Amino acid sequence: MNETNAPIHKPGFKSLTVENWNVADPIHDFFYQLSFSGEPEPTPPETWVDRLQVPQLEDTVPAGVRDLFEVARGYCIYGYYFYPLDNLGMEQLYRAADTAVTAKCQALNAPPGVANLSRNITFLADQGYEVAVWEAVRHLRNEASHPPFAQQQLPNYAIETMQFICKLINQLFATTFEREI
Q: Would you give the end-to-end CA distance of the chain in angstroms?
């Protein structure tokens, strides 16, 4: 109890202090990799960063989208030290995807009024693009933008989300005419 006799809220993640801000979040102690001898060992920060560096957007993706994607990557990388940043990174990935769809619609000369993600997805569908997966991304983006509580996903989900969003964005801006997304 505190001075007001109200219970003290303890979050489900590490509370940052001067002493621990650059120490791995304990959640990562539960995620292992196999050593060369076959024994499980905690994933070191270098491995975490290496895994998050693998997904790369192509040069055909607009610079603004690539910048948003890199901000998301940074959040996810620092999630090693403060686990909630993984979720913030995933939210930023959904924003990067939203911006990518907008940029693609602009490149296709979408008419005025096509100004939100739902309308942009409809416009892409009208152009012959397969958009079911983009509807799923829109749903995830909406959930991330209006959470009822501080959502927490498993750390490896950040890597999987980054790979997934990277693939979608790259396909959207592929130099060859690919409508299968």
A: 53
The pTM for the full model equals 0.83
**Residues above pLDDT 70, as percent of the chain:** 82
CA 109 to chain centre: 28
Mean pLDDT of the chain: 84
Contact, 167 vs 97, CB < 8 A?
A: no
Handedness of CA 5, 84, 30, 45 (dihedral sign): negative
Mean pLDDT, range 5-17, rounded to an integer: 65
Counting every residue, how long is the chain?
181
Rounded-to-integer distance, Cα 117 and Cα 102, Å:
7
Rg, the chain, Cα only: 19
